[in-house]
Design goal:
Oligomer: single chain
Mean pLDDT: 82
Radius of gyration: 32 Å
Low-confidence stretches: none
InterPro entries: DUF2782
Keywords: Signal
Strand order of the largest sheet: 1-2-3-4-5
Protein name: DUF2782 domain-containing protein
Number of strands: 5
Distance between the termini: 84 Å
Largest sheet: 5 strands, antiparallel
Number of helices: 1
């Protein structure tokens, strides 16, 4: 009885074991991402105004941050958070900068 049971189980498993795996083809490399490898670095302009040092940061000609370093005191930042040209004072750089991209502009 045992031999018959083992023979039936082997006979049932034999077709699955005998199947050959399909011929695998290598996956082609994905196309490069648009703008990959191009990192836009900000244009930095340092201006001396009286006793203060003003550092302006621009990307594509648009001013987005100003760092003011007084002769005596702690530096502070003016940041354009919405891209509309209105600067908001930040006494220290924020620890978390939420990405804000312009989707469409007129």
């Amino acid at each position: 009885m045992r031999r018959t049971l083992i023979a039936l189980l082997l006979a049932a498993a034999m077709p699955a074991y005998a199947q050959q795996p399909p011929a695998l083809e290598p996956i082609p490399e994905p196309p490069p991402m648009p703008g990959e490898g191009v990192v836009e670095e900000p244009e930095v302009t340092i201006i001396q105004r009286g006793e203060d040092t003003v550092t302006e940061y621009r990307i594509r000609g648009q001013l987005y941050m100003v760092k003011v370093t007084p002769l005596h005191g702690v530096p502070y930042y003016l940041i354009d958070k919405e891209g509309n040209g209105q600067m908001v004072r930040e006494d220290a750089l924020p620890s978390l900068a939420v990405p804000m991209w312009v989707i469409k502009s007129w």
